[in-house]
Specification:
The complex is a heterodimer of chains A (355) and B (597). With 355 residues, chain A is of the alpha+beta class. Chain A folds into 2 domains: 38-115 and 129-158, no CATH class; 166-272 and 307-352, Cupredoxins -  blue copper proteins (Immunoglobulin-like). Chain A is built from 9 helices and 10 strands. In chain A, α2 (39-67) packs antiparallel against α4 (81-112) and α4 runs antiparallel to α5 (128-157). Chain A starts with a helix and ends with a helix. Chain B is an all-alpha fold and 597 residues long. Chain B has one domain (7-14, 24-548): Cytochrome c oxidase-like, subunit I domain (Cytochrome C Oxidase, Chain A). Helices cover 62% and strands 1% of the residues of chain B. Chain B has a two-stranded antiparallel sheet with strand order 1-2. The longest helix of chain B is centred in the first third of the chain and has 37 residues, at 86-122. The model of chain B is unreliable at 1-16 (pLDDT under 50). The chains are: A alpha+beta (355), B mainly alpha (597). Chains A and B meet through α1, α2, α3, α4 and α5 of A and α5, β1, α9, α10 and α11 of B.
Chain lengths: 355, 597
């Protein structure tokens, strides 16, 4: 691969130099040529403008067809997800229309009005009506988007804790995640990094004397019961991290010294999502890529890649140091019964301490 | 207002020709034209470093953890056996961003063209203070040198992203690059800000005080309006970054806790108590967002001038263009929070910043439509400068439109810090501003060096760059929407993203081609300085004052008296005139009306 790349780079450099030389020869052959565009230059570049317009349209269409089956646009797994997705689709439609029209006008005019000797341009310096039109149209469009966006934002961010809301702490450190469940009392015990005591296995700095803390449960996997609102209280012990849960359309930074929060309601269990046709197709596609890659690896004497199975993920999405690219936690959405069974198997904070 | 009292004394001063030594002419020069060239060449060299870094990143992303001789050659100990180290990847991300945003697109672009054009286009002998101007360049030079030196620090260069959010940037325990590398980064930026402030103050004073007779504010070319307003934004916002940098230095070296609190790292609790990283984010983005416009407005100003000249038409809606520059400048200082929707700040603030941010789309749309209308029924001279200007409008639209998504707090939740953001800002400010810089270089090369750039090489340069730029950044929107975070050393830790690997290969190939073809420009640039075709006085048949000065650079710009100005800069193809351009110095004919613009 290295050799291949080097060859590509050298090749392009060679082409570049060859072109330079050729062009200079051309320039020298015709002494009269000046470096100001002639009618011929205008013609050639005018047609290239049209070609470029086609290129922009083609790359747009290809991108949408090849990479536009955005599983993230259609398969949200939280209650507020479809709200964001709908807003996204509306915004995309508007953008798509404006982009298509304005790029057409720009490049088409560049082609249509390419310069010719002797022609005079139209002296057209101002027109208040036109100015007003293209001020007012964006104003109306944006007013719509702003209002729609703000309602959505307020809906998502106004999380109120109700009786059945599950409270979970997300705890970030270089370079992994922990989750702390509030236990039977559904109240998290107090915590501060100053209370961390590695010797006693108190890795999150939970206050050992706080009665609310005794039944807390600390885990390295995030399990969530389906259709039950969950509110995350986020902490970080060292640098900024960001808890990014793309399938749930959720993201919030974890900031040392303060507690941030984000709430949502998961609506699709992991096993349901695995059966979703779009996801099945995506997983098949990924696995065929992995099988291909494995062949190369095995040929080199390395281990083959494991087959991929769909899981929700929590990713770190704020630059946090060397292993930022691999700071992740698995999220499992399951039925209330499965969740209860799982949480009951976990060790309570009080009994996890080393005496 | 433009007739300043000491014009006379000033002119006499320039009447005497001082004996110039090599040092005063080429090195410690106080002449704005020489300083412009110094900025341009320093910026170009920094640009080459920045682009090479981005290509190394693209090689790593497309072919992760594969040995590469280029890495081995350029990164040395950071690429054992030619495999790039994860720490140096983040350092490349950081330094590439810093260099491109500040050293190339702020100093290289604004420094070059503000210095060259402000005195020439307003009809002044030089900047208000040639001495401060010289100091400004040399501070920039020192800060560039310090930034380059920081690349060779033992523990690695700064690697916390160009936004250097603490605590990552504050704690050497968190990252090797946050040691001496970050110290040098901060020192370099502090010097850079001093340079930028001196430059900006000079630009503002010059535009206000030294305009020639008849050059009212409403007759200023849009370039000058853009540089003037850019300088004002710089003066307002750069000091805030300086304060953030100083406070961060205090936290790092003197034990204060402005940005740090409750930190446990590498097995120990640090003493910091009561500070907040979110405060740093506010201070940083109070500059960081206006910075986008500090980069973009000069490019738009240059484009306005070039599109009008080469369309042989007045710029459409001069007053609306000025108003939109002012509106963008004002709004740019009250939108910084859109970088912080998910930072943990109060969601109500998120609503406010969504509102102000989306408002910026209005003046931006006005500008785009005015450019397009200027082309309509023109007689377009498709010189390389014109192509880059049209290219700028194209990427400005493509990149700007996705701002509607990112500026909308609800949508930002899911695309924040993904490749969608990378695509957006590279198109709307990176590529657009770079096109503005290229356009400016092609257009004013005759003014800078007295020679012409080769146009055919210019055409090759433009078309390959234009295609590669879309090839690189357009697909990035889609991998971003698929949830791929930026600043990942490799995506192989997530099988979820395996199906995006081939997109990354396509992007990297476009990047390599685009990068390689910049050599055509570099070659054209340096070759033409010495051997290019000799320029005539007004090669593009332009109206503005700089083309009334002799091709050879002289101190004081005009051999005789400074010409007076009688009309605005955009009388192209005006009925009643034989030529399709009427220089600003030509008095109105009898009965001719100046356009009430």
């Amino acid at each position: 691969m290295t050799a291949f790349l080097t060859i590509i780079v050298l090749l392009f450099i060679a082409i570049a130099i060859w072109q330079i030389v050729k062009m200079l020869d051309l320039a020298q052959a015709n002494i009269k040529s000046s470096q100001v565009a002639t009618d011929k230059d205008n013609r050639v570049n005018g047609y290239l403008m049209l070609a470029f317009l086609v290129f922009i349209y083609v790359i747009t269409i290809v991108s949408f067809i090849k990479w536009g089956d955005l599983p993230l646009l259609s398969n949200s797994a939280s209650e507020h997800g479809p709200q964001i997705d709908n807003l996204m689709i509306w915004s995309m439609v508007i953008i798509f229309i404006v982009q298509t029209v304005t790029q057409f006008l720009l490049h088409y005019f560049a082609f249509k009005y390419k310069g010719e000797k002797g022609r005079k341009a139209l002296f057209f310096a101002d027109n208040n009506t036109l100015e007003a039109i293209w001020t007012i149209i964006p104003v109306i469009t944006l007013a719509g988007l702003i209002i729609y966006g703000l309602f959505t934002w307020n809906d998502i961010m106004n999380v109120t804790e109700e009786d059945d809301t599950l409270v979970v702490e997300l705890y970030a450190q270089q370079f992994n995640w922990k989750a702390r469940y509030a236990g039977a009392d559904n109240t998290l015990g107090k915590a501060n990094v100053r209370l961390i005591d590695i010797d006693r296995a108190n890795i999150l700095g939970v206050d050992e004397s706080d009665p609310n803390a005794q039944d807390d449960v600390i885990t390295s996997e995030l399990h969530l019961p389906v259709n039950r609102p969950v509110i995350f209280k986020m902490r970080s012990q060292d640098v900024l991290h960001s808890a990014y849960m793309p399938h749930f359309r959720a993201q919030m930074n974890c900031v040392p010294g303060m507690i941030t929060q984000f709430g949502f309601t998961p609506t699709v269990t992991t096993s349901e999502m695995r059966q979703n046709p779009d996801i099945v197709q995506k997983v098949e596609n990924i696995n065929s890529i992995r099988t291909e890659n494995s062949k190369d690896l095995v040929a080199k004497g390395e281990e083959a890649l494991d087959p991929y199975e769909f899981d929700y993920l929590l990713l770190c999405n704020k630059i946090c140091g060397k292993s930022h690219y691999n700071m992740q936690m698995k999220i499992i959405v399951e039925t209330q019964e499965e969740y209860d069974a799982w949480i009951n198997e976990q060790t309570l904070f009080a009994s996890s301490l080393i005496k | 207002m433009s007739e300043h009292l000491d014009t006379h004394a000033h002119e006499e001063d320039h009447g005497h020709h001082h004996k110039e030594t090599f040092v005063t002419k080429y090195i410690f020069s106080q002449d704005h034209k020489m300083i412009a060239k110094q900025y341009l060449i320093t910026g170009t060299i920094m640009g080459i470093i920045g682009v090479v870094m981005s290509l190394m990143m693209r090689l790593q992303i497309a072919w992760p953890e594969e040995p590469n001789v280029i890495f081995e050659a350029l990164l040395g100990k950071w690429a054992p056996d030619g495999v790039m180290d994860a720490d140096i990847y983040l350092a490349l991300v950081t330094i590439h961003g810093t260099i491109m945003v500040f050293f190339v697109l702020t100093a290289g672009l604004s420094g070059t063209f503000s210095n060259l054009l402000i005195p020439l286009q307003i009809g002044a002998r030089d900047m208000a203070s040639g001495f401060l101007n010289m100091i400004s360049y040399w501070l920039f030079f020192v800060s560039s040198v310090v930034m380059v030196i920081s690349l060779f620090v033992e523990a690695g260069p700064a690697a916390a992203g160009w936004t250097i959010y603490p605590p990552l940037s504050a704690l050497p325990l968190a990252q090797g690059g946050s040691g001496a590398g970050m110290t040098l980064w901060l020192v370099s930026m502090a010097i850079f800000i001093a340079s930028s402030l001196l430059g900006s103050l000079n630009y503002i004073v010059t535009v206000i005080n030294l305009r020639t007779k008849g050059m009212s504010m409403t007759r200023l070319p849009l370039t000058i309006w853009a540089f003037f307003v850019t300088a004002i934004i710089g003066v307002i916002s750069f000091p805030v970054l300086l304060s953030a940098a100083l406070l961060l230095i205090m936290d790092r070296s003197f034990g204060t806790s402005f940005f740090l609190s409750d930190i446990f790292i590498q097995g120990e609790v640090l003493h910091y108590q009561g500070g907040s990283p979110v405060l740093f984010e506010h201070l940083f983005w109070f500059l960081g967002h206006p910075e986008v416009y500090i980069v973009l407005l000069p490019a738009l100003g240059i484009t306005s001038e070039i599109i009008a000249t080469n369309s042989r038409k007045p710029i459409f809606g001069y007053r609306a263009m000025v108003a939109s520059i002012l509106a963008i400048a004002f709004l740019s200082t009250i939108v910084w929070g859109h970088h912080m929707f998910v930072s943990g700040m109060n969601p109500f603030l998120g609503s406010v910043f969504t509102f102000t941010t989306l408002l910026i789309a209005i003046p931006s749309a006005v500008k785009a439509f005015n450019y397009i209308t200027t082309l309509w029924k023109g007689n377009l001279q498709l010189n390389p400068a014109m192509l880059f200007s049209i290219g700028l409008v194209s990427t400005f639209i493509t990149g700007g439109l996705t701002g509607i998504i990112l500026g909308d707090s609800a949508l930002d939740i899911n695309v924040h810090d993904t490749y969608f953001v990378v695509a957006h800002f590279h198109l709307v400010m990176g590529i657009s501003a770079l096109y503005g810089m290229f356009a400016g270089i092609y257009h004013w090369f005759p003014k800078l060096f007295g020679r012409m750039l080769n146009k055919n090489l210019g055409y090759i340069h433009f078309w390959v760059t234009a295609i590669s730029a879309y090839g690189v950044f357009f697909p990035m929107h889609f991998i971003g929407m698929a949830g791929l975070p930026r600043r990942y050393y490799t995506n192989s830790a997530f099988p979820l993203f395996d199906d995006l690997a081939n997109v990354n290969v396509v992007i990297s190939i476009f990047a390599i081609v685009g990068g390689a073809f910049q050599l055509v420009f570099i070659w054209n640039f340096f070759y033409s300085i010495f051997y290019g075709e000799k320029a005539t006085q007004n090669p593009w048949k332009s109206n503005t004052l700089e083309w009334t000065t002799p091709v050879e650079h002289i101190h004081g710009n005009w051999p005789g008296a400074i010409p007076s100005v009688h009309r605005w800069a955009y009388d192209y193809s005006k009925p009643g005139h034989d030529d399709d351009f009427v220089s600003q110095i030509i008095p109105l004919k009898e009965g001719e009306e100046e356009l009430q613009h």
